[in-house]
Amino acid sequence: MSHLRSSARASVRVPVVAAAGVALLVAGCTSTKSGGSDDGSDSGGKVAIGLVTKTNSNPYFVKLRESAQDEASKKGAKLIALAGKFDGDNQGQVDAINNLVAQNVKGILITPSNSTGVLGAIKAARDKGIVVIALDTATDPASAVDATFATDNEAAGVKQGQYVKGALKGKKPAIAVLDGTPGSTVDDLRHKGFLKGFGLTNGSPEIKGTAVTNGDQTKAQTAMENLYQRDHGINAVYTINEPAAAGAAQALSGKSGVVIGSIDGSCTGVRNVQSGKFAATVMQFPKKMAQQGVDAVVDYAKDKKKPSGFTDTGSQLITDKPLSGLESKDTAWGLKNCWG
Amino acid sequence: MTTTQTSPVAPEGDTTRPPAKTAVARALGNTAAGPLAALVIAVIVFSATTDTFFNIDNASLIVEQFLVIGTLALGQTLIILTAGIDLANAAIMVLGTLVIAKLSQDALPAGVALIVGILLCTAIGAVSGTLVTRLRLPPFIVTLGVLSVLTATGQLFANGESFSVPSGVLTFLGERSYLFGRIEVTYGMGVAIILIVGLWFLLTQTSWGRNVYAVGDDEEAARLTGINTRRTLLSVYVLAGFVYAIAAWQALGRIPNADPNAFQTGNLDSITAVVIGGTSLFGGRGGVPGTVLGALVVTVLTNGLTQAGIDSLYQQVATGILVIVAVAVDRVVRRRAA
């Protein structure tokens, strides 16, 4: 997911600057209130729904928030949107949950920064009768929340792997793996899915090199240049997200015949598929997550019926060079459905 | 080397200078020796352990990879020499790339967009410098604030988009040509050489440069000797802002796409390069050659370790250890000098 990009900020190399990180942390979480009138006179009649995203800045979460906002307005509910300060800001998310509990929301939609980091606050909220739904990223265990609406990231990775393998058209694969950030749940699932779709394991000799890119286009470019310098035979690239794919494409510009696959479904990413910078991307649907999450809370407020289980909001292979046996949509469709 | 005319740092409150330096102190004070040794060792090790490292193509690649972070580190060097620190340098550069790219998309001629971007980065440098000199705020806090403001401004400005730039003036620094028909070079390398020589000249051959070292060494003592310390400090931040603008131009040459989420660790990477380059975080000692070597060391480590097939996390470990060693050496040198 593109939100990986912001986690890079958490990596601190120089002791002096660690203090800067601490200072940023102290500033706490950011908040935007929106939806409905907030003057108290009529808010009593409206269902209040809390939304806690990983960050406020990432376009992916901006889209998620906007979609939740639209859906809430449509259903006559009030949305209170809060966010962590950066990806991995567990404390900011815990503060946000506590804030929402204090504001008597009916339900909380959360994209947990970390699968286990916010479980205590979630339990406290559920004990008060608030329905809690995970969006985009599942908690561990999944039963810590009432329900989850998310992309099956492993399945999305499988689609990338299958496509890249197929696009090699029988050539012997020599793969560069451009990972996101080690330890991220979503990254691990995508990586695992890609290998599964390709029919490989981490130790397979077809993998010529692996690099951590934090989903940053410049780091991905440098990593790809170095891996290609190491092995000029590389003909397939796994990327954690579209900025990483863009960096890889830049590093390989002028070298034909390398198949780059990606995941995310941003409009920039789809345009890069259209222009041939990379071969395919796998789109996910934050809008669906937001809509279904809001609807579930509204339903709960109406008839006390709690949602449950994992709902896969789906993922879609986007390419202009379809392969037989792999269901895909073209970039024209992609540009109509991309998230930002 | 640049440091020959600087004197070792006197302890706090002690404004008397030590007498003429001993040969040992001069050798130790030669801050570029450490990073040079590290670079030579790294090159030897990677040449011996991989088949792909020691060749002219990879040398070109290393220099290309060095350009953006090296340029950021040059600006950072100016500020660290005055005992300051700039946490906002990469954010200034990224905002520069965004503004340049957006303006050129909105049908301004590319050259004009570039000039606006350069003026903007320089002006931001002037704002930081004014806050540091007029309000006497610590550079750490000022640039932390500027970092936060600019990161958010970049996101708001870009509104979730990234902007690609057309080929031409804006991507000129990334264009390649071949020396002797064999050695791949970019125009960005030429600009970097001009910048390096220019800054080296300013710092070592002009009275302005001597003032910068004096202010970094001991601001109060510099003021007492008649140096306008405020004006010197302000000029350092303005010049650094200009250097970050050149980094923005270099960045567009590397990837013709301005992304608000790029270079999130650029500030730390540039500080890392400066510190490994032997410039003292306490100010007044170090300089351009050390920083160039420091940035090359960082680039070579990433390049070589990747080709040796070593996990990226170990690359961060290696860089971190080098930083600590560099700061420890600086500490020892300071103690001996005192």
From TrEMBL, chain A:
Entries under Gene3D superfamilies matching the protein: 3.40.50.2300
From what superkingdom does this record's organism come? Bacteria
Asked whether the keyword Nucleus is assigned, the reply is no
Task: Return the Pfam families for the record.
Answer: Peripla_BP_4
Q: Does the keyword Signal apply?
A: yes
The cellular location(s) given in this protein's UniProt record come to: Cell envelope
Query: Which keywords describe this protein according to UniProt?
Result: Signal
Record domain Periplasmic binding protein: where: 49-305
PANTHER family in UniProt? D-ALLOSE-BINDING PERIPLASMIC PROTEIN-RELATED (PTHR46847:SF1)
Family membership, please give it: Belongs to the bacterial solute-binding protein 2 family.
Q: What is this protein called?
A: Substrate-binding domain-containing protein
UniProt source species: Streptomyces spinosisporus
Automatic annotation (TrEMBL), chain B:
* A Pfam family reported for this protein in Swiss-Prot or TrEMBL: BPD_transp_2
Q: Does the keyword Transcription regulation apply?
A: no
Q: Which organism is it from?
A: Streptomyces spinosisporus
Compartment(s) where it occurs, according to its Swiss-Prot or TrEMBL record? Cell membrane
- Name of the protein this chain belongs to: ABC transporter permease
Q: Which domain of life is it from?
A: Bacteria
Show the stretches that span the lipid bilayer.
66-95, 107-127, 139-158, 178-203, 233-252, 313-333
> Main subcellular localization, coarse class?
membrane
The keyword Transmembrane helix is assigned to this record = yes
